[in-house]
Here is the input.
Amino acid sequence: MEERNRLKIVFCTPALYISGGVERVLTLKANYFAEHFGYDITIILTEGKGKPYAYPLSEKIKVINLDVNFEELWNCSFIKKVFVYLKKQRIYKRKLSEELMRIRPDITDSLLRREINFLTKVKDGSKKIGELHVNRLNYRNFEANETNFTKKLFSQFWIKSLISHLKKLDCFVVLTEEDRRNWPELNNVVSIPNPVSLSIAHVSDLGHKRVLAIGRYTYQKGFDMLLRAWALVEKRCIDWELFIYGQGNREPYEKMANDLQLERCHLNGSVANIQEKYLESSLFVISSRFEGLSMSLLEAISFGLPVVSFACPCGFRDVITNNVDGILVPEEDVDQLAEQMLVVIQNPKYAKRLGENARKRSLDFRLEVLAERWKLLFESL
Here is the structure.
């Protein structure tokens, strides 16, 4: 690509040292855009100066850390937090505006963090894009045990302010068609899902009597409901086991497993060799109360695993056709989750057909396929 025709793109996100889904997807996309499309990519950060990146980053990508350190807010009292935040936000606005005026990108892409409050006011000549990696219904969602009247009011105020900023973007990208329809106030919304993030060389032979679940030990992931469902399954499938892998505090779930007298339920931390866990499993279960677009779902179908999942908001209907390449059950219906797990476990031919169709469906989420959709979007702007 000739130098004068190279698209110059800036991504704004807090950090790259965290091993989260957003960081992983951004790194994948940025690497592909730089290596395969020849785009001039810069990533601007506010946190983690001097810390190693969680995922490999192409040498062709420039990274600028403004070192604003919003993470300092984590240790402040509520009153102090307000003043520190306002001060840091002013610093961030000044520093980011200066960098964008210097770089003069064609496109500035916000991961919808603190810059969304002022980004469209920066007159650097770039088209402004926003990306949302959760669904609207659960954006700024609070854990059930943390929600109170004040936080609900704040959330309502915040979403109104957000919409006013989103209207000014040249394009707003969400992960699913289901979520795109959740933004009726906007006419600039498109959906582009996340790509499969793992390199898949083999698929599961579905020969192991293992059920797999992956995710953080949080209210969102619904492992409390999964354990209750597994209590029903375990009684009828005495030679099958459930394995859960993820970060977070496992103690409440370990206590629950003990109270339910579960004998073949294994609660594990996160592991580096997660590919092996997919290959060692014959059924993947998702018990989430809500999602953006589950990365583990896309990985599971890429390994040819049949999936049983709650049809929670948002995005599972975009991926799974019920009884074709997976099974969707009514959200938070523990009895149905257990019943459909049993259907797959007790019908190997049906499980094999679901897994084969799931593998075919996963091809639509390859990085090279979705990168072309981003390319069309960028070049249309």
Summary: The chain is about 40% helix and 15% strand. The first strand starts at residue 8 and ends at 12. The radius of gyration is 22 Å. Residues 72 and 176 are 34 Å apart (CA to CA).
